[in-house]
Amino acid sequence: MTGLQFAQQDFLLADADGSHLAQFGHDVWWIMLIKCVAIFAFLMVITLFNIVFERRAVSWMQQRVGPNRTGPQGSLQSLADGVKLMLKEDIIPKAADKAVFVIAPIISATGAFLAFAVIPIGPEVSIFGEKTVLQVTDTPIAVLFILAASSAAIYGIVLAGWSSGSTYPLLGGLRSTAQMISYELAMALSFVGVFLYAGSMSTSEIVAAQSDLWYGVALLPSFIVFVIAMVGETNRPPFDLPEAEGELVGGFHTEYSSIKFALFFLGEYIALTTVSALAVTLFLGGWQAPWPIGGPIWPGANENWWPVLWFMGKLLCFIFLFIWLRGTLPRMRYDQFMALGWKVLIPVSIGWILLIATIQALRNEGHDVQNIVLVAAGVLAALLLLTWVWEVVRAKPAEDEPEPVAEFDPFAGGYPVPPMPGQVPVTTSGAGLRSSTGSEPGRGELDA
């Protein structure tokens, strides 16, 4: 048999089994063009909306006015900011690697666009008489494609920090590398439970598998880990360490200006939309209506174009969560941030995967797993409690042990240097402020 005959046979088998993947790959070219242009336009428009939405929401939280000049109620402020950035002078530092410096923001924005190609927005509908699914495409490994595309966007940040030829952007790029490794690993582990329950990595099939119960409820620990990891993955507050202005001026984009600077923010806000859409797809039933609406109240709520409304409502709720975190939580210290990823999220994810894999194996063998689930949940909660108590006890300093005092000479380099915490200045002459015993010098000692 030829390759074409094998492909036709696979399609017929998939169609006979009711696989949702059989719905893709049969659209006419102009339908595919319409869907690609629609996704691009949607991401551009929702980025402009998200910027204004964020500024208005944060100003409301902080009891400020917010943007109110450009357009009705300040609704065109983000468009005005984009035009302003495009008209600014484009500066490239002399020490920069010019080719990589120019390509880096393009990589960051392009990777964010690609990830949205496999997000299901709605069911099969009719467009100008042609039946098509409201999704650009789907593959058996669609979720892995999203991870790869989001990683490509992070590479743009890393390359931007390296190619700028400056210290602070380089530190921001290094932080972004460590952040990507840590939190993308935790994010990938949170997907494993979804794969085990749905039996597929296809986004359309994962949405279909949640028709009875959303995975945000059935797999609550995975959902919580994913929500925390997606904030770290998108460099949003309180995890915006690669661009910490209090420490690194502007981080990886310190040397950027004009349209290149705008591309980084475009990529960030599109990544915000993409991970929010991914959370909706994997844990909140995708485009399916919430239970009271999609159940007995309105049986036709998941048909035609109505599911687009449910998808957009869930998406905006997640976007508001990002904005709420920015207006509420302060930025974490970098060591706390890395400890959260490696010491909390990843161990919890691994333990949760072992638990649900055991439950699935026992269920497949016909065992009653209700009591096993309760016992395993109790053991897991006890382990988490013991771990937390151990961390608290270890971090508490001993009260009977005095803190060590480090002595130093503030005039050793020829210039007075203020003491660091825990240090006591030592004076070898009358010019110092303290004696070697750490007590204040008397008047007679200074006169001497």
Overview of the structural elements:
The protein folds into 2 domains: 22-330, no CATH class; 332-395. Helix content is 62%, strand content 3%. The chain contains 16 helices and 4 strands. It has helices spanning 3-17, 29-61, 77-87, 98-114, 142-163, 167-198, 203-209, 215-218, 220-233, 245-248, 258-283, 291-297, 306-328, 334-364, 370-395, 443-447; strands at residues 124-127, 130-133, 406-408, 423-425. The strands form 2 sheets. Strands 1-2 form a two-stranded antiparallel sheet. A two-stranded parallel ribbon has the order 3-4. Helix 2 (29-61) runs parallel beside helix 13, helix 11 packs across helix 13 and helix 14 (334-364) runs antiparallel to helix 15 (370-395). Residues 401-448 are annotated as: Disordered. The chain crosses the membrane at residues 28-53, 99-121, 141-162, 183-201, 213-232, 261-285, 305-325, 337-359, 371-390.
Please sum up the structure shown.
The protein is mainly alpha-helical and 448 residues long.
Keyword list:
448 residues, mainly alpha, two-stranded antiparallel ribbon, two-stranded parallel ribbon, 16 helices, globular, disordered N terminus
Mean pLDDT over the residues: 80
Write down the domain tally: 2
Low-confidence stretches: 1-18, 429-448
Helix proportion range = 55-70%
Strand segment tally: 4
Biggest sheet features = 2 strands, antiparallel
Pfam families: NADHdh (PF00146)
Transmembrane segments: 28-53, 99-121, 141-162, 183-201, 213-232, 261-285, 305-325, 337-359, 371-390
Keywords: Cell membrane, Membrane, NAD, Quinone, Translocase, Transmembrane, Transmembrane helix, Ubiquinone
Protein name: NADH-quinone oxidoreductase subunit H
